[in-house]
Amino acid sequence: MLEGTSGDHPVQPQPRQGHLEQMTQGRVQIPSSMAGEEDFFLEEKRFKQHCEEFVKHSQQIGDGWEWRTNKDLGDGYLSKTHFQVRNRHIAQDLREKTSDNIEETLLAHVEESLDDSQVAGVCTTEEVIRYEYHVLYSSSYQVPVLYFRACFLDGRPLTLEEIWGSVHACYQDRLQEGPWDTITQQEHPILGQPFFVLHPCRTNEFISTVLTGPWKHNRHKNYIILWLSTVGPVVGLSVPLSYAKVAPEQNSSTDSAERALN
Amino acid sequence: MTDDKDVLRDVWFGRIPTCFTLYQDEITEREAEPYYLLLPRISYLTLVTDKVKKHFQKVMRQEEVSEIWFEYEGTPLKWHYPIGLLFDLHASNTALPWSITVHFKNFPEKDLLHCHSKDVIEAHFMACIKEADALKHKSQVINEMQKKDHKQLWMGLQNDKFEQFWAINRKLMEYPPEDNGFRYIPFRIYQATTERPFIQKLFRPIASGGQLHTLGDLLKDVCPSAVTPEEMWLSNLRIDLRWRAEDSSDDSWN
C-alpha cells in the first residue's frame, strides 16, 4: 500500500490472517522522489524493533530502560524510572541517578552542604522527584509517544502547573504558546492510570526535519534514539551521547520486505 | 447523512436520570439533600455538574471543600469518559435513577485525572476529536479548520446546541465521493473486566474484496472472545460523535 494517496485501497487481496496485522506491516515509507510532502511514520513492527535495539544499548551502559509487555494484547512499552533533584545548590552529577544509589548520594551531599558555609541552601528530601517515563506507540498518529509521571518522595504527585514550570527554559516559549497542546494529563492507554503526556501531533513535523535533505542518512538509524533525544530533554529526560553509537540497521529483513511491497 | 438526522438527534439528546448523594464522611453544617439531574450521555461529568457542586457546597464550610470527584459503588468515575459510557460500563444493569456519590476530599490521584477548570475538559475533548480525525482523514479536515470552528464544536457541546455542533462536525464526518469511507474507523472497545482501559486498533471500513466491513467484523477481529456466532448481527459501522464505546462485558453483546 502506498502512503500518500487519498484512496488507500489495498492493491492486492489480503490473506485471511486478519487485516490488522497487514495494516501495520504493510505501511511503507515513500521514497523521496515520489512524494511532494513526505511522511515519516513509524509502523508498529519497526517501533518494537527499534525499542529492542534501544533497550539492548541501555543495558550495556546501565541507563535503566526496560521493555514491558501487556499480556492481553501483546503490545508493550519502554519504561524507565529515575530521580531528579530540583535544588540548584546540589552538584550537577546528582541530577540523574538510578534508584540504587540515590539515597546514599543524597545523604552524602546533605552532610557536605551543612559543612560548606558558601552553600546557601540545603537539599531536603522534598525536592527529590521520582520520574517514571514510558514510551508507547500511537497507532492513530503512527509515532512513539512519551508518557511520564512525577512525584515527590513522600508520594505527592506533581501538579500540571508544576510540570509546566519544570519544562526547560529553552522550551518555555513554545509551551506558553499552547500549553494545552503540549503537555497535559491523560490516561495511560495500557495501565489506565493518570500520566502526563507530551502531545504527539507535532512529532511528524520535527522528525521530518531530522530525516530530510542533509540528514537523509538518518533514515536507517534508530527512530527511538532520534526522537527521544529530541523530545526527552523537554521534560527532563536526557539520552546519553553513547546512544549515537548504536549501529544503524543494515538491510534487515523488514526493510527488504517493505521495498518488495513498494 | 440527512436520513440519519433522527439517529444523530437521539444520540445527542440521550439522558440518564441520576441521583447525586454526598459522601457520608464529608463534613457538613447541616443535612445534605440528594440532588437529581438528567445527565447528557454525550457530555462529561465535570462539565454538567456545576449545580450539583453548588448544591452541596451550600451545606459545607469552605475549608472542607477541595476538588470534586464522583464515585459509583466504590469505583471512582473517570470524568474524561463520556457519561453514557460510564453508565453503560458500571451501572447499565441496575435500576434508574443512577446513584452517584459526590466527594470533596481525598482526591484519588492514582485513578482520576485532575479537572481544575473547563479548559482541561476542552483540551481533552479537542484531543479526542483530533485523534479521531487523524484516523479518518490524516488530520486534514481538522487542521484546515480555523480556531473559531474548533471553538464552535466545543461551545456546541458545552451549551447543548445540536445544530451549532453539527454545523462543524458534519465536515469531520464527510469523505470525498471517490473514497468509500474514512481511512480508518475511530473506535474504542471498553470492557469493565480488564485492567487495560480499552482496545483501540487500526481498522479499515472496506474489506479487500470491496465490501463494507460490519460491526461484527470489527469485533471478530479485535476481541473475538466477546462475541459468539449466534450473537453477531450485521449493521453498517456507524461513527457518530467521537468514539463509539460499546461492549461492556465479556459474555454478552448488547
UniProtKB/TrEMBL annotation, chain A:
One of its GO terms (biological process) is autophagosome assembly. One of its GO terms (molecular function) is Atg12 conjugating enzyme activity. GO terms for cellular component: cytosol. It holds the Pfam family Autophagy_act_C. Residues 1-20 are annotated as: Disordered. It is found in: Cytoplasm. Keywords: Autophagy, Cytoplasm, Protein transport, Transferase, Transport, Ubl conjugation pathway. InterPro entries: Atg3/Atg10. Its main location: cytoplasm. Belongs to the ATG10 family. E2-like enzyme involved in autophagy. Acts as an E2-like enzyme that catalyzes the conjugation of ATG12 to ATG5. ATG12 conjugation to ATG5 is required for autophagy. Likely serves as an ATG5-recognition molecule. Not involved in ATG12 conjugation to ATG3. Plays a role in adenovirus-mediated cell lysis. This is Ubiquitin-like-conjugating enzyme ATG10.
TrEMBL record, chain B:
GO terms for cellular component: Atg12-Atg5-Atg16 complex; autophagosome; mitochondria-associated endoplasmic reticulum membrane contact site; phagophore; phagophore assembly site membrane. GO terms for molecular function: Atg8-family ligase activity. It is found in: Preautophagosomal structure membrane. Its main location: membrane. It is a peripheral membrane protein. GO terms for biological process: autophagy of mitochondrion; cellular response to nitrogen starvation; piecemeal microautophagy of the nucleus; vacuole organization. The keyword Plastid does not apply. Residues 119-174 form the Autophagy protein ATG5 alpha-helical bundle region domain. The keyword Ubl conjugation applies. Pfam families: ATG5_HBR, ATG5_UblA, ATG5_UblB. Residues 184-231 form the Autophagy protein ATG5 UblB domain. InterPro entries: Atg5, ATG5_HBR, Atg5_HR, ATG5_UblA, Atg5_UblA_dom_sf, ATG5_UblB. Residues 11-104 form the Autophagy protein ATG5 UblA domain. Keywords: Autophagy, Isopeptide bond, Membrane, Ubl conjugation. Gene3D superfamilies: 3.10.20.620, Autophagy protein Apg5, helix rich domain, Phosphatidylinositol 3-kinase Catalytic Subunit, Chain A, domain 1. Forms a conjugate with ATG12. Part of the minor complex composed of 4 sets of ATG12-ATG5 and ATG16L1 (400 kDa); this complex interacts with ATG3 leading to disruption of ATG7 interaction and promotion of ATG8-like proteins lipidation. Forms an 800-kDa complex composed of ATG12-ATG5 and ATG16L2. The ATG12-ATG5 conjugate interacts with RAB33A; this interaction is bridged by ATG16L1 and promotes ATG12-ATG5-ATG16L1 complex recruitment to phagophores. Interacts with TECPR1; the interaction is direct and does not take place when ATG16L1 is associated with the ATG5-ATG12 conjugate. May play an important role in the apoptotic process, possibly within the modified cytoskeleton. Its expression is a relatively late event in the apoptotic process, occurring downstream of caspase activity. Plays a crucial role in IFN-gamma-induced autophagic cell death by interacting with FADD. Belongs to the ATG5 family. This is Autophagy protein 5. It comes from Pipra filicauda. The lineage of its organism: Eukaryota, Metazoa, Chordata, Craniata, Vertebrata.
